[in-house]
Amino acid sequence: MDALDRVLTRIAEGLDSATASESMELEFKTDGRSVKDDLANIADAAACLANGTGGTLVVGVDDKIAGPAAFVGTTLDPEKTRLRIYEITQPPLLVESESRSTAHGNVLVLTVVSSTQVHSANGKIPTERVADRCLPMTTERIAAVTAQKTGRDWSAHPSGAPASDVDPVAMQVAREMLARSNDLGKRRLAEASDIDLLRALGVVLEDQTLTNSGALLFTRTYEQTALISYTYRRTPAGQLTANEQLSGPLVVALQRVFDLIEARLETTPVSIGKGQQLHIADLPEAAVREAVVNGLMHREYFSAERTAVEHTITQLRVSSPGGFVPGVSVDNVLTTSSRTRNTNLAGAMRMLGLAETAGSGVDRMYAEMARIGHEPPRYTAAPTWVEVTLLGGAPNTALARYVATLPPEEAADADTMVILLTLLTKKTVGAEELMPLLQKPAIEESQSVLARLSSDEIRLLEPTRETVRRAYPKYRLREDALTALGSAVTYRRRTTDQLDRKIIELVNETGTINARMVRILLDLDAVGASRVLADLVDRGILVKTSEATRGPSVTYGRGAAFPAKAGSRSNQRDGRAQREPRSPAQLPLDGLEEQ
After folding, report:
1. Domains, the chain, ordered by start
2. Most buried residue, 35, 254, 366, 585, by most Cβ within 10 Å?
3. What is the value of pTM for the model shown?
């Protein structure tokens, strides 16, 4: 009700109209020509909300205008309205109904909870809420929503297909998947008989028939049904160069899709030292596999729609029928506990190594994308579909090289990788701004991640000196991490501990420096080194010591403002750095602006 009050206040103040305020869970109505018609329309809207996630129906606010005039009021009686909705909905629907007084008139507020059944009103086809509209439900959609609301697992139901119907090629593909496992038990299972393998996967019933998931994975029951469509274009708007429609058995179709994608992935070699080299794909294979498998494992099989895989050189989009299961949304898909409408199918696919263990698949996609410099997966969804997009391209080799030096558990941690990726372009981050990125519902959860990464064991981050005493400090990369990341970072923090200090120490050692030495020292390109040197000359820290105008012959030495003692610090008073007047030769480098 607090949220509704805020909406009504904005409408009364003219900031929004009722139409602009409507959503998946909020609908506005006004009185019409007759009470009978009004009640029929309200029952329709209530059934629509109940078939989805529930919501609130407000009667007495004109959805076409804003301001006080929008509150036109209603003559409907709360209890009679509640009773009439119960009478003309099938199955009968109970709602809460109350009359509320506002500063501009009375409104009727109906609260509708998500039902365990699918309701219709006035003998019409059931509808469900999609964005801010109620749309008719197909027969397949009614079956899907009913199964979802009652917890029915389609994949576990008997298919009627005998276990002897399994396709030999499908069983061979399954054995090859198991043979690649790191688990000794799974590798041994690859050598088991067909029936023992099917039992271990949980897809065969006591009467030796297969579950729906068993028939889907291993038989040709769905041979005439295209389960997956794969298309490839060199660019998103380019000419179609591959278009395949793949039917069952599903394990064979999946392997085919993996092969089609892998054949078109481009790789970049990255040297990580000690003669070792990584070949990093523009789209990480682990993230690609997880996106495709999730699109098939969690999809709605009451629908005849295909799971669509659209591939370009820098992008992969997977769309599948069926919305998120209750409790999962685009805002919590990373952090919510694993849920699926196809429990039997998910168990078999995880056993085969096609998917990560429960609850870690999306985490892995996030980590794999971030660790090579790509943004996290993009999710969009509606009640009837879910879509995930992976945006790839050439990897950030400097970042990939650094991640290869991290402990494996950190390199595989989605929170760590997303924070690291963020700090490549932002000098500092705080717990509050990380909440939506990490999908943490509480600021304390984000803060705990930052605190862990700044601990003595990990030493990736550090709180800034200005905020260290706050409950939720700002954090930045430590000096050694910043240095190791090199060109992966799009900014340079110029402090005595970093850029200036390194150059001053080098001049103290060698007497003079040139652009090439700065490039090697700071891992910069020629333009970046020139800018650094020019800036130091402008501030009087360095001075040109040669007649040459370009090339390695241009040298630099100590300038008038070169510090007598590198890294000297200002006095500390009242917790703040107070500068004392000093000669140019004694000027410290603390507090220099960041670039």
Report:
1. 2-137 (3.30.950.30), 152-395 (3.30.565.60), 406-488 (1.10.10), 499-586 (1.10.10.10)
2. 366
3. 0.70
